[in-house]
Amino acid sequence: MTIGLRRSALYMPASNLRAIEKARSLPCDVVIFDLEDAVAPEAKEAARANAVAAVRDGGFGDRELVIRVNALGTPWAIDDLAAAAESGAHAVLAPKVGDAETVRAYHEALGKAPAGTGFWAMIEAARAIFRLDTIAEAMAARPGCFVLGTNDLAKEMGAALTVERTPFLGMMALAVAAAKGHGLAILDGVYNAFEDDAGLERQCAEAKAYGFDGKTLIHPRQIEGANRRFSPSEAEIAWAEAAVAGFAAPENAGKGAIRVGGEMVERLHLAQAERILSVSGNALG
Question: What is the total count of domains within the chain?
C-alpha cells in the first residue's frame, strides 16, 4: 500500500466489534485500533484479538491501519507488540514515549515486524518535550510519525486544555520542527468536545498552519471537518497551479524566483506547490 493522506485518524476501541465494522465504511484516512486507553483491563486480550482479526480480514479500502498497543511495562505490552508485529498493520502506535531509549526498546520488541511497518510515537509526557529531537532521530529505523497526546500533557502539567490550547502552542511548534526535521509525519491531538464543530475547525486550522499533517479524532462526526480543513483550499490550489505553471514557462527557465500574483515565489517553494497539488489530487480521489 502506498501511504496517502493522514488528515483524519480515528481512534476505535478494539474491544467494540460494532465500531470496528463501522470503521470499514467511514471516510477517515487512518483507523487506529486502540488497545490502550479505550479498553478496560479485563477486555485487553479480546481487544488484541479483535484488532489483529480486523487487520487480517481487511475491507478497509485505502485506509491506513494502525494498532495502538499498551505501554512497555504494562502486563499486556509484550503480547500486544508481538501480535501487532505480525498482524499486517501498517504501523504500531506506542504510548508514553519519553526518550530515545524507549524508542529503541519498542523497535527491539517489534523486531519480527516487516521493515515497512511504521512506528508511531505518542508525545504525551512532559519530559518528552525536551527530548523531541533525539526521539525523532531514534525513530529513523522505521517509517515514523509523532502523535501529540494533549490530554495526557494537560493532566501531567495541570494545564487548562481549552479550544485555544495556549499553554501548548510552543510545544506544538517544537514537535512539528522535530518531526519534519527527521522526515516524520505528525498528527495533532484529539479534541474532546466532539459535538463542537466550530471548536474542531479552529483546532484543525491552527494545526494545519503549524505544519501538522492531520488530526487524531475520537468520534466519526469529526471526520468531515478534519478532512476538509487539512485538504488544500481553493486559494492554495490556485497559488500552487500558478507557481508550477510559472516555473515551467520557458521565459523563467533558470530563474530562482518569479512573480506569482502579488508576491515573489522562490524555486524552493516549487516543491511546496507540487505537494499541495498532490494532496489535492489524493483528496479528490
Answer: 2
